[in-house]
Recover the amino acids of this structure.
């Protein structure tokens, strides 16, 4: 066992798979709120500083560098959300692999 997992994980919603789906929904909601909050703050700062109006952001067409960044962020988002239904050992293995891959690229 790793990551503080217990041998038999307790269930809260009557079924372990339903708990897994609930964990995924909570992860998704958390990700969504962080992004929503950050976006609103950023739009407010940009508008108050006369840099760009929020509606101008809708017209942006990403260049190649931004496309790459968006792709990488989408991949991470997908791994976090859908990975939340994996068992703790698998989640820890994936986190360690990602961390090691990040160090290798640096």
């Amino acid at each position: 066992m790793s990551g503080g997992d217990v041998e038999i994980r307790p269930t809260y919603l009557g079924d372990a798979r339903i708990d897994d789906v609930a964990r995924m929904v909570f992860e998704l909601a958390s990700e969504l709120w962080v992004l929503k909050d950050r976006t609103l703050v950023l739009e407010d700062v940009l508008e108050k500083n006369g840099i760009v109006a929020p509606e101008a952001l809708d017209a942006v067409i990403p260049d190649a560098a931004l496309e790459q960044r968006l792709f990488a962020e989408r991949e991470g988002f997908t791994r976090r959300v859908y990975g939340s239904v994996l068992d703790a050992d698998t989640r820890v293995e994936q986190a360690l692999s990602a961390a090691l891959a990040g160090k290798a690229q640096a």
Residues 43 and 96 are 35 Å apart (CA to CA). The chain has one domain: 16-105. The chain is about 65% helix and 0% strand.
